[in-house]
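On to our target:
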Amino acid sequence: MGQPSRNSFTPDCLPVLIGSMPSRDHRKASESVFLHTPEIPVWVQLPVHHQEGMIVQFMPGFPGLTTQDEKWFIQSDGADFSDALLQFYEEYMAVTEERIPIDDSRFALTRDVAPGFYIFMEEIPAATIHPRALKGQITGPITFSTAVKDHHDRAIFYDDQIRDVAIKLLAMKARWQARQLSRFGFPVILFLDEPALAGFGSSEFISITGESVTAALNEVIDAIHAEGGYAGIHVCANTDWNVIMNTHVDIINFDAYGYFDRFILYPDALKSFWDRDGMIAWGIVPTDNPDAMSRETPQSLTALLKAQMIQIEQLGISRVTILARSFITPSCGLGALTADQADHVLELTQNVSRMIRNTTAC
């Protein structure tokens, strides 16, 4: 289908969520999404259910996947691993070349690991407010491949062959999501959730190069683009934003509440990102500090956001452009919060979006 037209969608400061919620009930959580973010709803992940953890949820289909003592890992030295690898690549090529339907492949998310996705698909036609876009998400390749270990308890990122499998597995699962969501005729947005990129450049990831990060991200992003979707990257702390802004990504979601002062340190890359029609998802509503969550109001967060947008405007980006190409989000997912905290964050996000749109030219 090719990369989406840059004239077909603008977020216009609408609210959107990262994806995770603290509820045990998928339908109730989905109803909350449609209530607070109806213009850009998202399917929910409920990490209280083990199979919906951000790593485990996307592991099915990985060759050599083994469970032992409730621990998941890749058994890459077994007698059958070479055959499993060959089968993986054969299936990957068959789906890519459309010789077999992606729905019938290992790359389709199943209802047992992603019930929130299927409930979301059921509820979209009944939405009382016409969506402007639909959002999904997948764990990003850096977070996934540094978290998944082999039988030696070594991150699979450091094995070139197995890392390639991980990237292709995620790329095709993202492509499947985008294809499913596109059936409704709305623009499709998929975020790559990349919390591990907060450690990029630290001693923990000292051997991971910017080139390898870019290549991994772009392969998944390009798969989303191949289905006509918009690709976003969510990082909930600081990172090397120059690397992120120089990928093929369309949307950058960052913790504007806690890390705007670091984000603005990359003016040239940021200007280039805006110039190629990039969009920013402002994580202006705090989620990791209970005191901040209870202290801040829609008015205080809107004032903070406006002050930050002025600094972006000073880079030579017009205010109209900034407002048109901005989303309003929480700083991270809500899965680790209490139900009351999550409800409060949802209300703050919705109200900040409403205030910024009512008081500006959005």
Observations:
- Confidence is low (pLDDT under 50) at residues 1-6.
- Strands lie at 14-15, 65-68, 71-74, 134-139, 188-193, 230-235, 251-254, 279-285, 326-330.
